[in-house]
TrEMBL record:
Places the protein is found: Membrane
Membrane topology: Multi-pass membrane protein
Biological source species: Hymenobacter endophyticus
InterPro entries: Cyt_c_biogenesis_CcmB
Transmembrane domains' residue ranges: 12-33, 45-66, 86-110, 122-145, 152-170, 190-211
UniProt KW Phosphoprotein keyword: no
Protein family: Belongs to the CcmB/CycW/HelB family.
Protein name as catalogued: Heme exporter protein CcmB
Pfam families: CcmB
Length: 213
């Protein structure tokens, strides 16, 4: 994790590019709905928010393994266990996506208004989404890095895996926008936690075999 943080800090162009993507997407949404006074209906606000986060997650996590050269991966192989590599990547990407999600939420609130009535539920749901996107896309990035056309393969493998998680995230966000209590979203939140744990366990168990290939 320390290596990833240092590398990201030295190559700040990638981080600035992700922040620029989020801010420009929010601004385009504002221009699109400026005829309505810049206010979106709650369902449209929710859908656009998760679309922005989804594509931001793909762009942010894709470079996790794709930017690692074969020589550097061989060097890692002599230093650490494969479980340490995959867990560090997942935690780092989860923190990165959580930061991007909070920035997007702040920009949305300033530019397009804040229709969220249950903010703690919404932020907790965003945190679960960041962990879920990070764990799923990190494993897919490790698989795609072994292929020739890695960028296309990551998109093909990643989106179908994230659809069930995305449906649950949108459902919980809609409950938060409507101001429903925690009990109304409890089953969906528990399912999200279970999905994150399953993906994390699968990554921990299967990545060593991928590491040796």
């Amino acid at each position: 994790m320390q290596k990833d943080f240092r590398l990201e800090w030295r190559q700040r162009a990638a981080l600035n590019g992700m922040l620029l993507y989020v801010s420009s997407t929010v601004f385009v949404c504002y221009l699109s709905f400026s005829s309505r006074g810049g206010q979106l209906p709650a369902p449209a606000w929710n859908a656009l928010f998760w679309i922005v986060l989804l594509f931001s997650a793909v762009n942010a996590v894709a470079k996790g393994f794709l930017q690692e050269s074969r020589g550097r991966m061989l060097y890692y192989y002599t230093l650490v266990r494969p479980q340490a590599v995959i867990l560090a990547k997942i935690v780092y990407n989860a923190l990165l996506l959580l930061g991007l999600a909070l920035v997007a939420f702040g920009l949305y609130s300033v530019v397009l208004g804040n229709p969220v009535q249950n903010v703690p539920l919404f932020v907790g749901n965003v945190a679960l989404g960041a962990v879920g996107f990070a764990s799923t896309l990190t494993l897919v990035s490790g698989i795609a890095a072994k292929a020739t056309n890695s960028s296309t393969l990551m998109a093909v493998l990643g989106f179908p895996l994230m659809v069930p998680m995305l449906l649950l995230l949108i459902k919980v966000s809609k409950n938060a926008l409507d101001g429903l209590e925690f009990e109304a979203s409890q089953s969906a939140l528990l399912t999200l936690v279970a999905l994150n744990m399953i993906v994390g366990a699968v990554s921990y168990l299967l990545f060593p075999f991928l590491w040796r290939s």
